[in-house]
Design a protein that fits this description.
It contains 14 helices and eleven strands. The protein is of the alpha/beta class. Helix 9 links the parallel strand 3 and strand 4 (201-206). It is elongated and about 80 Å long.
Length: 363
């Protein structure tokens, strides 16, 4: 086996440093020795060096893009519980994670739902998957980005600041609804959305549906203009599910051995519930989506709902009383939603936002 001349080795090191090929600089000597020992042709040796350099550049680029994306740690598609959010199609999310079909066209993704439904987790998980697939992403709270853009406007550099964000194929704005209804804040947000329209993509999470965005933007014209630009090329997920944090807290509480309280609303313990958008309806979030086994005909359910209505509008009996209801099948009482419509045997009870969904079981 031939040895490498020390003078040639030193010259190669300098040339590789000048060419900015650090990966090849690290491995060329060992690969040269292996090629000499195994009798590689020159083409195979050069290909091995180039492949190593490309692999190392890809690894460094991924690390750099993940660092600049500022994604919250631990939020990946593998850790997202799709079963807890059945309204979200896992196949559709996996298709979005590839990015080609929508990022190239500057399309948007909008996630709506109450707090704790997994919007931020899904947004961050999609961002992580897109970075792994070679896209550049920035995850930020909307209020933080708006404050930075306000500073840029005061320094007469708003246009330049927005232009710098063009390097990101996807800009994730988390918690849009927490922006205050202030002309200075919402105007820079409008400028950002307008600048990225059909050019670069946005992923937005919000607790409030479009109908309540008048609470964010100061005038109706701006609200309409923002919504029009966002939905023109958009995929929308409505994640109206029970809060994961609330559900986990209840599970921990029950895991400590405290049995459910079976008392009803005849003077017994009650819990506060948010006021409803329509009088006389029962909230899915306030009842906690509990199921119960019942024994008589379903007509009694109407009387139960009527009893709930008699209670104070701001108070509802705990969901744990549901095992003592009386009908022939397990039932789920909650707010009306599209997912419930998909269940066999679903029927409305006691108002437009009250739903009893027969889940099957002993007759």
């Amino acid at each position: 086996m031939r040895t490498i001349d020390p003078g040639d080795a030193a010259r190669i090191e300098l040339l590789l440093a000048e060419l900015r090929l650090p990966a090849i600089k690290l491995v060329w000597a060992s690969l040269a020795a292996q090629a000499d020992k195994e009798g590689w042709p020159a083409g195979r040796f050069l290909a091995a060096l180039a492949e190593h350099e490309i692999a190392e550049r890809s690894r460094r680029r991924l690390e750099r893009h993940l660092a600049e994306a500022r994604l919250p740690p631990g939020k990946t598609l593998d850790t997202f519980d799709f079963e807890a959010v059945p309204v979200v199609s896992k196949a559709q999310v996996m298709a979005l994670a590839a990015g080609d079909a929508w990022l190239n066209n500057g399309a948007n993704l909008l996630l709506f739902g109450p707090p704790g439904g997994g919007k931020s987790h899904l947004a961050a998980a999609l961002g992580f998957a897109l970075v792994e697939n070679g896209w550049r992403v920035l995850f930020t709270r909307t209020t933080d980005l708006v404050q930075r853009l306000q500073i840029a406007r005061r320094e007469l550099a708003l246009e330049a600041a927005i232009a710098k964000l063009d390097k990101y194929h996807l800009l994730i704005l988390d918690d849009l609804a927490y922006v205050t209804k202030d002309q200075a804040e919402t105007s820079v947000l409008f400028e950002l959305i307008s600048a990225r329209y059909e050019q670069r993509s946005l992923l937005i999470t919000a607790n409030q549906p479009f109908g309540e965005w008048g609470k964010i933007f100061p005038d109706q014209a701006m609200t309409v203009a923002v919504v029009d630009r966002l939905v023109h090329h958009a995929t929308i997920f409505e994640m109206n599910v029970e809060s994961y944090r609330r559900r986990a807290a209840l599970e921990r509480k029950r895991g400590r051995g405290r049995p459910p309280d079976p008392r009803d609303n005849n003077g017994q313990r009650l819990i506060a519930a948010p006021r409803q958008s329509k009088p006389g309806t029962i909230s899915c979030a306030s009842i906690n989506a509990q199921r119960s086994w019942c024994r008589r005909d379903a007509g009694i359910l109407t009387q139960i709902v009527a009893a709930f209505r008699i209670a104070s509008p701001g108070m509802l009996p705990e969901a744990d009383l549901l095992p003592h209801l009386i009908c022939s099948r397990p039932i789920f009482i909650g707010g009306a939603n599209d997912e419930a419509d998909q269940h066999d045997g679903a029927r409305r009870v006691g108002g437009s936002d009250c739903r009893a969904v027969c889940a099957g079981g002993p007759g």
